[in-house]
Amino acid sequence: MGEEQEKQPEEDKTKLETLAHALDEEKKRSEEYLIRLKYAQADFENLKKRLDRQLEEVKKYCNERLIVELLEVVDELEMAIKSGRSAKSAEVVIQGVEMTLKKLKKVLEKEGVSPIECLGKPFDPSKHNAVAKTEKAGAEGCTVIEEVRKGYAMREKVIRPSIVKIVVKPSSKPQEEMDQDE
């Protein structure tokens, strides 16, 4: 029994040393992981800052291509004004402005902008703003009869509604009865 008691402290000491060594190894490994995590976090922060800077740069100059095309239209309008001042005929100016308008419409078309067709179509409040209403017998529902200002859509989104005048069926109550009811 005495031998076993002497072996026990040695075994405990060996186990303790082994556990202490394992603990030291785990501490080293966890410190290494912590350092790696800090580097990864710093890399992530740097990447985020770089992407934010790049996004700001893109936002600043995203319209550049469109602006360059519009500057060509500005040049043509300036030429039309210049030739209009020197020309004896208004026809030359009209032709120049028509050509410029055609070019501007092409630029808008390339950007996905198209006019909203509305004449003779049913009134749609998501695409039209009505400024006047006319009652007419035989009118089908609420129909657009005149376009006061052209509206435009960019791809599927209305960016400027059409301002229109509409025609509706006459109300069933005569105007005199309506006046008496009020």
Give the topology, please:
Layout: H1 2-61, H2 64-86, H3 90-110, E1 113-115, E2 128-135, E3 143-149, E4 152-154, E5 157-160, E6 162-168, H4 175-181
Parallel strand pairs: 2-6
Antiparallel strand pairs: 1-4, 3-6, 4-5
Helix pairs in contact: 2-3
Short summary:
The chain has four helices and six strands.
Provide the descriptors you would attach to this structure in a database record:
disordered C terminus, Nucleotide Exchange Factor Grpe, Chain A, domain 2, 3-stranded mixed sheet, 4 helices, single chain, alpha+beta, 6 strands, 3-stranded antiparallel sheet, 182 residues
Structure description:
The protein is an alpha+beta fold and 182 residues long. It is 61% helix and 18% strand. The protein has 4 helices and 6 strands, in the order H-H-H-E-E-E-E-E-E-H. The strands form 2 sheets. It has a 3-stranded antiparallel sheet with strand order 1-4-5. Strands 2-6-3 form a 3-stranded mixed sheet, with no helix packed on it. The protein starts with a helix and ends with a helix.
